[in-house]
Amino acid sequence: MNVGAVAGILKRYPSLPLIAYVTLHAPQFNAVAQLARLGLKEVVLHHFDDAPEGFRERIERVEGNALTHDLIEVLRDRLGQLPRQLSVAVENLFDQPHRYTSALDLGMEAGIAIVSVYRNLDSAELGSPKRLLIAAKVLRGFSYLRDPGYSVLDVSIKLGYKTARIFSQHWVGIFGVTPARIRTRLSDEAAIESVLRWLGAGDDDSSLADDLGHVPGHNAPRPRRRRKAEPS
After folding, report:
1. For residues 118 and 126, what is the distance between their CA atoms, to the nearest angstrom?
2. Which helix (H) or strand (E) holds 191?
3. Which homologous superfamily is 66-207 in?
4. Which of 63, 107, 156, 220 could serve as 117's disulfide partner, Cβ 3.0–4.6 Å?
């Protein structure tokens, strides 16, 4: 095991899910002990606790995002008011926000018409599909930006934004200040409270820039004027 390389990753990207898969030998244990002091939390022993099913469960647990889990638990009662397939789609949205590029993706995954998605989310006081999409991306971005190795541009690209400017605009809309100013000053609990407050604000969504990098309607091509026919 290259302890120096793994230590560098842990220092720059502490939120990355890492599992040490090691043999039962003293050098490996010494390396794990060093890395544990830097934040390594998951260790699997070769031929001892690496049965396929258990190993798979361990990987799935490590890949989970604690902020996402906490937010979903807070929303659990409201999610229970949704049709089952839509509730699952919303949880998937927060689990993997980079997979979604528009509100329509939520309806497609749930197999529900977008009009019904809006109606059901509004009834459950979960805002609109666009707000859920932005909230999921910004919350995951908050998690990423706690790592010193990520820049705002890095995170915006990871989350599928066309420009870092739009990501920052969404961030300011939820947290009130720019990513650079807040990345080390806000607790997880305060971040979740800000997201919940923003979701329930009920403001007009028409001014929200989408994650493709434009405000709806602002970049639409203008109709070309027809020239009047000249008299013959």
Report:
1. 9
2. helix 188-199
3. Homeodomain-like (1.10.10.60)
4. 107
